[in-house]
Amino acid sequence: MNDKVAFITGASRGIGAESAVALASAGYRVAITARTLTDGEHHDHVGSSVALPGSLEATAKAVESVGGDALCLRGDILEPRSMVAAAEAALKHFGRIDLLFNNAVYQGTGNIEALLDVAEEQLWAIYQGNVFTPLALVKAIVPGMIDRKSGTVLNMVSHSAFTDPPAAANNGGWGFAYPSSKAALARMAASLRAEHPAKGLRVFNLEPGLVMTDVMRLAGIDDAVMARFKPCSPAAIAAVVSWLADNEPLEAWDPKNVLRGPAIAKELKLLQSRSLLGT
Question: Which helix (DSSP H) or strand (DSSP E) does residue 50 occupy?
Fold first, then answer.
């Protein structure tokens, strides 16, 4: 067991929630952020105000069930001040942050729009959520890691950022806005490594493969997409996140570029990891 602290965005459901419990099981205290604090809250998901399963309070309960300590901090990646305030609150509460997991992703409209159809305001929102807010969190948290000469930043990227779409966005492929934002986020790791060598700072890009979510279903991701890829479970990717938190990835995994979550899960025999959320 250890006494390290993880700060996890998008932790009310899916990979973020599973990762919070997996890290807690490994001894981490966790600061968890998301828009949804309590079950039943309505938020904008792909243009619809709906209440999706999951909440920070539910994640915290699962963390506590494995003997962990969770600090719930409401924050919205489209409101960067709320996220920086959450980081500051976590630092004040725990005294340090050892792992920053930039997992949350923009969930409004525009993600799967055709290039000629995506609106400028949609593009701004996507980049705010997927690039500018993660950068704000890095600026708030990484200086402490550098001072301690120890810390890990894990940025969730996307297969679509590095791969040509097999078809149009409305026919089993993907558009321009979302992949381009994730490609921009992926460039952060190399910059941080170059600017802070030998400072004990570990920075990785993690690509989770296709992980089906409630938001993706709302966005119209259907069997046409599922048929092209082999989905990976949130629990399997969370197990990889927990492993990477305290272990060095193999050079064969290309850690200076993009870590492929499903392939790592397969090699570490984590693909069948069970959900830790108790649902």
Answer: strand 48-50
Say which DSSP state 137 is in.
H
Beta bridge partners of 204: 154
Contact 273, 265 (CB under 8 A): yes
Residue 2 DSSP class: -
Taking the CA atoms of 221, 223, 226 and 228 in sequence, report the sign of the dihedral they define. negative
Q: Beta strand 5-8 with 29-34: parallel, antiparallel or unpaired?
A: parallel
Quote the CA–CA distance of 128 and 126 in Å, as a whole number. 5
Helix axes 133-148, 80-94, angle to 10 degrees: 20
pLDDT of residue 198: 84
Cα 73–186–82 angle (5° rounding)?
20
Alpha-carbon gap, residue 212 to 191, rounded angstroms:
31
Q: Count CB-CB contacts under 10 A for residue 232.
A: 22
Helix (H, G, I), strand (E, B) or coil at 224: helix
Tokens representing 58? 């539910």
Single out the residue of 204, 205, 196 nearest to residue 143, CA to CA: 196
pTM to 2 decimal places = 0.91
Phi-psi region of 47 (alpha: psi -120 to 50; beta: other; left: phi over 0): left
SS3 101: strand
Quick check: 104 pLDDT over 90?
yes
List 110's β-bridge partners, or say none.
none
Contact, 205 vs 157, CB < 8 A?
yes
Residue position matching structure tokens 């090699």: 267
Euclidean distance between CA atoms 200 and 146, whole angstroms? 7
